[in-house]
Amino acid sequence: MGANRVYDSVKRISDFIRTESGAVFTCQTEMGRNMDVAIDFVLDDVLRVRAGAGYATSGIRHSLLDSSFIPRNSGISFEYNENHIILKSNALVVKINMLQWQMIVQDKDGNLILKDVTDDVDAIGKLRAMPLGFELNAEGDIEAVNQSFGIKFDEHFYGFGEKFNEFDKRGQKLVMYNRDALGVKNEWAYKNVPFFISTSGYGFFVNSTRKVEFDMGYTSNAAYTVRVPDQALEYYIIFGPDFKRILYNYRQMTGAAPMPPLWSFGLWISTGFQNATEHSVEDTARKMRKKGIPCDVIHFDCYWLNDNMWCDFEWDSMKFPEPEVMIKELKDQGFKICLWINPYVSERSDMFKEGVAGGYFLKRANGDVYVKDMWHGLQPPCGIIDITNPYALEWLKAKLKRLLHMGVDVFKTDFGEDIPDDAYFYNGSTGADMHNLYSVLYNKVVFETTMEVKGKDTLVWGRSGYAGSQKYPACWSGDPACSFEAMAAVLRGGLSYGLSGVPFWSHDIGGFYGTPSPKLYIRWAQFGLMCSHSRCHGTTSRDPWLFGGEAERIFTQYVRLRYKLLPYIYSTALCSCTTGLPFIRALLIEHPDDPTVYHIDDQYYFGESIMVAPVFSEEDRRKVYLPKGEWVDFWTRSVYAGPTWIDYCAPIDVLPIFVKRGAIIPVLGKEIQYIDSNVFKDNVIFEVYDDKYTKDIIYTEHGKAYVEAEPMSYIKLNGWEDIGRFSVKFML
User: Fold this and answer.
1) What is the pTM of this model?
2) Same domain, 699 and 605
3) Among 50, 223, 256, 480, which is disulfide-ready with 486 (CB 3.0 to 4.6 Å)?
C-alpha cells in the first residue's frame, strides 16, 4: 500500500439477507464504514463474491463474462446459528464467521479449498496481507478493495496471462496491465488475464478490467492478496478439482474459442519487418513452391504501408505498385494473404484528418484529440481509434472491408496495449477502465468484420489480449530477442497463457529482433512448428534458405512433419474449442497429482498424445521427464516406462518427441504443398504406437468404424472428409 494510504478492514457482520442463490451480508469496518458482501453460487461448483460499498445490488462497469453465460445451480441449502452461516451446493460448502468476518470454502467432503486471511501480521503487529477491506487515500476516498487468502505450504499457482517470468507464480507480484513488453524478459505482458489456477484444485477469476494486482506470496509467504483499484471487488472461485474441469467452466463463463480456418494450421511465412517489395514477396513465394516447402500464408508486415503513415490502411505504391495483381498471383499459387495493422493513426496521414473531423479518436479531458507517441519515437505521434464509438467502428470496418475485398484473408492486429489511463472514450469510460479491455474489443471488431466478408473462414493474428480474447483466435507472443533464453521464456508465456483459458497461441520462429544463428533458427523452428500455429517472422528475413543448406533441409523436414500431422492437429484443435483445453499443454494439466511436473515449463503436450521437449541451448542434449505411463520415442520407436527422467541425445536434426504408447495418430498419407478443402479426402492413414496386434475402435459422431492394426503400422480409413469435421477420440 502506498504512502499516505489508510487501510480500513472488515471486522464483523451487522446484518444479512438470504437470496435464491446465496446471501448478502452488511459488514462493518474498523472505521465504521459499511461494506456489502454478496456470496452466491452461479454454478454448483462456481462461487461468486462481490464486495464493496453498496455493491451487492449494483453491477460493474465492464463485465468480462460472456453474454451467453447463464448462471444456474441445482439449489442450495442455508444453515444459520449464532456463530456461522453455512451455504451449500452439490459441490461446495461456504462458511461465514458471524462474530469476526472470515470466509472458508470447502468441498462437499469438508476438505479446505481456501479461506480468507484476517490476521497475517508481523512481530510488531503490522499487517503483511491486507484482509477484506477498503484502501483509502488521504482524503478518505476509496481507492481500492483488497482481500487476502491463505497459501498452503505445498500450493502452487499458474496462469495470469502470457507471463514470461517463472512458470509457477508463487512468490511473485503480478500486475494485470497490458504493456508493449518490448521483449520477454520481465513481468510485463502483452496479454494479461486476471485468472489463475491453484494446485489446491480451484481457479480464481477477478471480473475487472482495471489494473488488478496479485501479490502471490511475495510480501507474505503465508498469503496472497488481490487488489482492485476500484470501488468494489468481484471474483469467482471455480472448483475443479481437476484442472480440465476448471478450464471448462472458465470457458463457459468467458466464452469459447471458435474453430480457426483449416488453412491457418499451415505455415505462415513473413515478408520481414522491413524492406519488403512486390518483387521480394513474389520471389519468396516462388522459392517456397520450387523448393517443395509447404506453406499456406504470406504475411505482409509494417512496410506494406507508407513510412510515417502507420496505420492508414493504404499500400505503399512505390514498393507495391499493383497490390491486387500481386495478391491474385499469390492466391493462384495457393497462398492466403495476411496484412499487419494497428489501431493508431499517424497525425501526418489523411486518415487522421478524417478521424478528427468525425470525432473518431480518443479525447483528453478538455475534449481535444488525444495525440500520443505510440512508437517510442520511431514514427510520428498518433490518434487512437475510439473502439467504443459506433461511428468510428463503421469507419474502421470500411477500411478493412476494402482490403478484404481486394483478396486479403486475415489481419495481424498488432499493438493495442498502451491506451493512456487519462484518455476519454465515447461511451464515457476512462482509459483506466478501458486499458485492458481495449485489446479484446479491437480484436473483436477486426474478427467480426473479417467474418462479414469471409464467413466462418475467419481468424485474426493478435498480439494484445485480456480475459475473453480466446473468442477471437489466434495470437502470437510479441517481440522476443534472438536467443535461446528468449525462446525458453516464450514457451513459459505460452504455457501460462494456455492455463489462462486460451487454446491457440504462436510465436515468431527465430525470434523477433536481431538475426538468429543457424542453430538457433533450427531449434526454434522445431519448437515453433509443433505449436497450434506456426509463423516465421522477425526484424530480418526468416526465409529458411538464408540460414544455410543444413538449416533449410531440417526446416523443410519439420514443415513436412507438421503437414503430415494435419489430421491430428485439426482433431486436437476441435477438442480445444469444445473443452477449453490449450492446444499445447503444460504437463500438470494431464498429471495434476505428480509434483514433479509442477515446475516443468520446458516441455509440453502437443495435443493429447504427443510430448515435445524442445532444445533450448547450444548443447545437443537435454533432460526429459516422462510422466507415468509408457512412451514411444517418435524417431527410434524405443519404449520408456515413466515416471522417469532421461538424458536425451538430440543431434541438430532431432527434436525430442514422444508418443503415448497405444496412441493412434491420424496423419496424411501423401505430401501436400498447401491446404485446400479436400485435403483429407482419401488422404488419411493412422499410425499406431503399440507393439501388439490390436483391434481398435474409432468413435465419431457418425457411428463406429472398426479397423485392425499391425505393430507400428498404417491404417487406411476412407471417409476422413466426413469424420474429420468433428472431434475424433481414439481409444484402444
Assistant:
1) 0.94
2) no
3) 480
